[in-house]
Amino acid sequence: FFRIRRPPRSTQGVSSAASDVYKRQVHGITFYLRQGMGAHKPRGILCARKLHNKRRLNRWADKNYRKAHTGREFRWDPMGGASHASGICVGKVGFESKQPNSAFRTGLRVLLK
User: Fold this and answer.
1) Quick one: which of 29, 30, 50, 31 has its CA closest to 41?
2) Is the overall model pTM greater than 0.90, yes or no?
3) Of all helices (H) and strands (E), which one includes residue 98?
């Protein structure tokens, strides 16, 4: 059964972001329910596992977390996520720059070890 709550006296008639209280009528009984951050989260002594698992699964929706934890640098990066690598020079490659610049840029083709 729901617990009936009275709004704090400081918030009666005045709405503040910190303690936003609203009324709900259920079968003629008035309930005062708090709305705010974490309003639909489980609460209580035995809910730690539920909160932990929910947070662990929802972290994957964050783009930066997913990028950091998928191990993509080991699968797709030819350098394997390293900043330096050693290799054997296979040949010189030259290409011209686009307009309005005029240059002949050279690069090396490298076979990584």
Assistant:
1) 50
2) no
3) none
